[in-house]
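Dear support,

Our group has been running a series of protein-ligand predictions, and this particular one with NAI is the one our PI (initials K.S.) wants archived with full inputs and outputs. We had some confusion internally about which version of the output was final, so please treat the block below as the authoritative record. The input we submitted was:
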Amino acid sequence: MRLKDKTAVITGSANGIGLAAARKFVQEGCKVVMADYDEGKGAAEAKKLVEEGGDAVFYQVDIADRESVNSLAERVAQEFGGIDILVNNAGITRDGMMAKLSEEDFQRVLDVNLTGVFHCTQAFLPALLSSGKGKIINTASASGLFGNGGQTNYAASKAAVIGMTKTWAKEFGPKGINVNAVAPGVIETEMTAKIPDKVKAQMNSLIPLGKFGKPEDAANAYLFLASNESDYVNGIVLQVDGGIMM
Ligand code: NAI
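Confirmed final output from the archive:
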């Protein structure tokens, strides 16, 4: 068991990559707090994991809202004390070409993908520090590393997440906390289900492995960065993209 007796908070774990990570983490002996905006799906998925023998709870949160995140952190502190792992996985897209991108769509993506990660990390820092040895995993994206047409807002938010990851690796490393990012390429989830088939075919042709990733592929990277196997890994951006951008 790679995460025995650890406690993790995974944001955005009602669906997609976060949900795959929650399942993997409980299978590795971790207590998992599934924190997501989507209460119906999140509560149902947490119940399923418990029925499968896992140790999981669901708490509702909007990571863009500081008060909501602070309430979550207080609840987690009361019920679990310290935590060992924070996975800042929740994220959204609101794509549009630059010429037509609305202020609202630009701002909402930054509010969730960038400010949300800032809120969660700040709120859970005391709980991570109290464990004396922690892991923070931030979810970036190939878009944040290389840009992507139609994703001004999203690419900006994910590039910023990479900047925060490297900064926190320097700030928190001396306090026993490793901070790393995972940059998925194209992973088959609700987020990518809305991409038109023609665009998907074009993207697929750029991937040397010739296929899109599964949520479990990204979740495996989270698991590595959450486990003791990555104890000497700090400040990296681990690409999980089949080699789409080399
Ligand atoms: P998804 O759409 O399947 O799941 C995202 C989850 O985040 C949902 O459960 C949603 O309810 C939750 N969420 C959204 N806004 C929230 C908020 N304000 N507060 C709390 N929870 C919120 O997405 P997916 O594909 O699993 O993405 C997970 C992460 O991976 C995201 O950060 C995404 O940007 C990133 N990513 C995904 C890629 C892909 O190809 N699927 C590629 C690169 C990065």
